[in-house]
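During the no-cost extension, the postdoctoral fellow (Dr. R.K.) reprocessed legacy sequence entries with the updated structure-token encoder. One reprocessed record is reproduced below for audit purposes.
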Amino acid sequence: MVADVAAVVLAVGGVAGVGAWATRPVVESRWWDELDKPPWQPPNAVFGPVWSVLYALIATSMLIVRRRAGWRRPLFVLYGSNLALNLAWTLIFFRGRSPLAAGVEIVALESTTIALIVGSASVSRLASLCLVPYAL
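Re-encoded structure tokens follow.
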């Protein structure tokens, strides 16, 4: 089980770490300041703590599924695809500075997130519910 936790923490933590690296300098840039953002957008200081919780919930979901169903290939391919799309979105939006391309990419990201919610529900309701805040 320790190896499973390590694998999940490395996967999720790696995506979170690279995402933070890619995001941090951009949210302090002129491009970010001048970007037309919705009035309901929370302050920049909220993003780090919120995403830390979301990544912890993703990792929790993965570990619950792993414990109850083993490394079920279709679900873990989906988790991996979702993490890759999550990272790709961050790189496209923040480093590529392309809201339009990120808007297109997020459709695939959200699709895999919804598929994970549905797919993990057959293994564990809790694993599925852990992903709902991420989807929202």
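The mean pLDDT is 94. The chain has one domain: 2-135. The remaining legacy entries will be reprocessed before the final report is submitted.
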